[in-house]
Specification:
Blueprint (H helix, E strand, L loop, with lengths): L10 H15 L2 H16 L4 H28 L20 H7 L3 H4 L4 E5 L5 H14 L4 E5 H13 L3 H10 L2 E7 L6 H14 L4 E6 L13 H12 L3 E6 L3 H17 L1
Parallel strand pairs: 1-4, 1-5, 2-3, 3-4
C-alpha cells in the first residue's frame, strides 16, 4: 500500500485528526500526551522517528501500568503492602537479600512454593501481600485468600456440585497466596478439600502461605497426621521457607509510639 501524505492541513486540523485517529485506534495515552510531546519535540528539534517512538513507548508503558493495576485488583489483596514499606531493621530475622531475590519472581515462574512462618505482628502477611503484588506487576496471575475463606468456599462448592470448577479456577492462577493458615482448626473434610487444591497446583503453579504455627504445630489445624504430613510436603518441597520470628515488631512499634506520646505530653 502506497502512503499518500495529506498536504495543507492546518495545525488545528492536524490536532483534530490526531485526536479522532487516537479514539478510533484506542490510543488514549497518545491522545492525552500528544499536545505536550509535540511541543517538546518541536523545542528539542526531535526527529520524526524519535517523536513517534516517544509517543508509542508512552502508550506501551501506560498499557503495561494499567495491566498491572488490573492484575493487582484481580488478586483481591485486602490492603496495599509493598516491599519498600517493609521495615527490615525492625525484624532482623528476615534477610533483605532473600526477600529481594524472591521479588524477582523466579520461584513463581518455576512453580515453587513459599512458606512464611512466624507469630502475629512479625510481618509475614505484609511480605505475602507485597511479594504477591510483585508477582502481579511482573505479569503473573495472582489470587489472595484467607485459609478459612478458601476452605469454606470449597465446602460450599462441593455441596453445590461445583467443586471441580472451583478447584480449576484456583488452579489457573500462577500464584495462590493463602493467609492465616493455622489460626483455626479444620475438620477432615475441609482439610481434604484444601489438599485437593494444593495437589492440583503441585509442581505446576506456586502457592505462598503465611502461618502463625510452625510445621510441628500444624497437627492442630490438620488433625489427621498423615494428611497433615502430605500438606506440609506439598507446601515445602523445593520451595522457600522464611521464618519471621516470634517478636512482634508491630507491638513494639505501638509501644514506642505510645511512649513517645507520653513523653511529649509530660
Amino acid at each position: 500500500m502506497t502512503f499518500k501524505p495529506r498536504r495543507g492541513l492546518t495545525e488545528q486540523a492536524a490536532d483534530a485528526a490526531v485526536d479522532q485517529a487516537c479514539r478510533m485506534l484506542r490510543l488514549p495515552t497518545v491522545r492525552a500526551q500528544f499536545p505536550d510531546l509535540s511541543e517538546a519535540a518541536a523545542r528539542e528539534q526531535m526527529s520524526y522517528r524519535g517523536f513517534l517512538a516517544e509517543l508509542l513507548m508512552a502508550e506501551c508503558d501506560d498499557r503495561a501500568r494499567r495491566r498491572s493495576e488490573r492484575r493487582i485488583k484481580a488478586a483481591g489483596f485486602p490492603r496495599e503492602k509493598s516491599l519498600r514499606a517493609f521495615d527490615f531493621a525492625a525484624n532482623p530475622n528476615i534477610d533483605p537479600a532473600v526477600i529481594n531475590t524472591l521479588a524477582t519472581c523466579d520461584w513463581v515462574k518455576k512453580g515453587l512454593p513459599l512458606c512464611l512462618i512466624g507469630d502475629s505482628g512479625t510481618g509475614k502477611s505484609h511480605l505475602l501481600i507485597a511479594l504477591g503484588t510483585e508477582a502481579a506487576m511482573a505479569g503473573h496471575r495472582v489470587r489472595y485468600t484467607l485459609a478459612t475463606k478458601l476452605v469454606n468456599e470449597l465446602v460450599e462448592a462441593a455441596d453445590d456440585k461445583q467443586l471441580t470448577k472451583t478447584i480449576n479456577r484456583y488452579g489457573r492462577v500462577d500464584l495462590l497466596c493463602v493467609d492465616e493458615l493455622g489460626y483455626m482448626e479444620l475438620d477432615r473434610r475441609g482439610a481434604e478439600l484444601l489438599f485437593q487444591v494444593l495437589t492440583e497446583r503441585e509442581e505446576k503453579a506456586s502457592v505462598a502461605i503465611a502461618s502463625n504455627e510452625s510445621f510441628s504445630g500444624w497437627t492442630k489445624t490438620f488433625t489427621d497426621p498423615r494428611l497433615c504430613a502430605a500438606i506440609v510436603d506439598r507446601l515445602t518441597f523445593g520451595g522457600n521457607i522464611i521464618e519471621t520470628g516470634t517478636d512482634s515488631y508491630r507491638l513494639a512499634q505501638t509501644r514506642a509510639q505510645a511512649a513517645a506520646a507520653n513523653a511529649a505530653a509530660g
